[in-house]
Amino acid sequence: MIAFFSIAPFLSGSERCLQLILLESKSDGMQPVLVTSRNSPLKKWAQDNGISHFSVELNPIKVNSKTRWLYEQVKLTIFLSKKGVKVIHSNQIWSYRAALLPAKLLRAKLICHFRDPIDSGARWWLPRIPDLSIFVSSYIQKQFCSNFEISSNNNLVKMLDPVKRPQKKSFNERETTKKVARANFHLDPNSLVLGFIGQISPVKGLLTAIDVVSRLKRNDWTLLVVGNDPSPDQQYLKKCIREVDKKQISERVLFLGFRDDISSVYEAVDMIIMFSTEEPLGLIPLEAGGFYKPSIVSNVGGLPETVNFGQSGWIIDPVEYYEAVTIIENIKEEDLAEKGYKARLFTESINDPKEYWKSLGKV
């Protein structure tokens, strides 16, 4: 029996991946256990999908006394013991410390999935190396090995996060779906539609994307911006909107905010542009590939691992990002179709929840 720990109070890419892994484990005949912080939206999701769930404080920093933390740990250990848990999987490093005492008392194996940048500060969260360390990218694995002493006994594996993919479709089916999606967004069925999907924050590079599209000489493009600014004052979003107005492209750049129907966005666009300045991996190009859409990404962090350069998309220099203008200017419809098909094949080859589930058998 495996218990999965998730500390995040919101649904992000990490939690979407965990959902796929949990569903895959169920389809494989397992009965996984999900442990979350009390304010996690995963609680309702677990109930809706018949997954055993337990809420408890997973962050020791938020507990104001050692006695209170010990009380939370004892409750958690009793629950895991009753479920017969033999393996504890921390979905991120931030919930790993909450797994240490229960694992020791239950003699359970420990797994940690490293999804975030790792520096010397990670040592506090990781007082002992897990029995199995899973890295979201080679980039994160290298950071880990630079900050921790690794022996031949340490079990390390790179597994790109799984993403949900729609059923395979023929070219004609994809074109029909695209026309319907564009009609819902009131888009020109024959225009070039670019997509920016993600958190609207400086690290995601939306201002760079706006600068790139403003330099396009072709006049048949639209940029869909999907996501929220997580800051209380929304200053970065406001800055992006002012920049769009300044460059007089407000009719072509559509700010859609957060969308539950993200599949419709992928179906409507021709390609994704992602000019982040830092990314442990970057799920958006992988998700786009599932919808037969290529991506242009900056060569930072783990992003290059999500694109088969020249085949399923393009990787550009984060400083000399103007080369993206040339790529977009010269792209043809047949090129998009070919690269979109290869993006789907590439995503399928490197990204599968079944493979992730198999890797857990290494502990």
TrEMBL record:
Single biological process term from Gene Ontology: carbohydrate derivative metabolic process
Organism: Marinobacter sp. MMG032
CDD domains the UniProt entry points to: GT4_PimA-like (cd03801)
Protein's name according to its UniProt entry: Glycosyltransferase family 4 protein
Key words, A-Z: Glycosyltransferase, Transferase
InterPro entries the UniProt entry points to: Glyco_trans_1
PANTHER family referenced in this protein's UniProt entry, alphabetically: BLL3361 PROTEIN, GLYCOSYLTRANSFERASE
EC number: 2.4.-.-
